[in-house]
Hints:
The chain has helices at residues 8-31, 54-63, 70-98, 104-123, 127-147, 154-176, 181-205, 216-242, 266-269, 287-316, 322-344, 349-372, and strands at residues 211-212, 373-374. It has 2 domains: 1-209, no CATH class; 210-377, no CATH class. α1 packs antiparallel against α3, α3 packs antiparallel against α6 and α8 (216-242) packs antiparallel against α10 (287-316). By secondary structure, the protein is mostly helical.
Amino acid sequence: MTSPHRHYHRLAWAAVLLAFAIVIFGAFVRLSNAGLSCPDWPTCYGRATWPVHDHEIAQANATFERAVETGKAWREQVHRHLAGGLGLLILLLALIAAQKRRFGVAQIAGAAALVAASIPLYIGKHYEYAAAMALAGEAWLLIQAIRGSNSDASRLSAIVLMVVVFQAVLGMWTVTWLLKPVVVMAHLLGGLATFSLLVWLAWATTPGAALVQAVAPKLRRLLWIGLALLALQIALGGWTSSNYAALACGSDFPKCLGQWWPQHDFREAFVLWRGIGVDYEGGVLDGPARVAIQLSHRIVALLVFGHLLAVAIRMIRTPGLLFWGCVLAVLLCAQIALGIGNVLLSLPLWVAVAHTGGAALLLFVIVGLLARLRAPE
């Protein structure tokens, strides 16, 4: 992939850093129970910021059913502002990538304008028109992605922009659908997907970043399998968190509630859709269902650890890949240690947030290797 501008990869790396910060801060918001601290979207109690002064708080409490918690509201709204900044940076990347294609800049700008126009329509409660505008913008971006090329950044940048727009929609649904677990899980996956695509874009447009290896084809297959397993484990992690099942086994490890296979309910644990209108803050599942979620998360963690450790050992034994093999092995062991620490220490906030960061760093290594590994010509 050729870079459309000599500074393009620098902008892409800036977007990677910002996306990583948003993933970490988003985990902090979610795990500190601040996900519903702003009952409306994209404003917070009708404000671009959040209520601070006594008269603002009194007015917000009189207007909205949920009482203002200033200590939490700022977290949610700052997270939204950071995400908005990332969206603008990704739009800039898409515009630069499209400048060499006929009408490319106008096409990307037109799609972005449709999405932007849907926001005031949504605030004005014209929900049907807002949805139509957003869908039209997403469809337009999809067309640009299909028409783009793999030889430059036009296709991938359009895909990233399309994903970040849908991620904003998921953020809206997270609030309006009262922390519905399937939406919270999808929002986590969307954030990490955005981060991963930006990592691929940054490495692919960085001059001289390719890793030419004879073992590249086989190693890439193993990395794709590892990426699929890691994505499954991240989804289970999001499902565990959104259903408040992280401590379903108490502080026992490796056992659960003092047993290797305690009472569980897998059928109830993985019901994805339970209708709209239920407040999921604090969770709605009973003990056996939460135990089933926790057990699933632990079982898949073993699969991920075994596969990626084997990949890391193979890389360590391959000349030229020693560094990245060691990094992968260290991150993998650290992530397992953080997961166990979450249980043994009863889910301290910093450990839980670091666990999300560890997942993002594992994605950084795996996606970066997939973007860079090439077989000799």
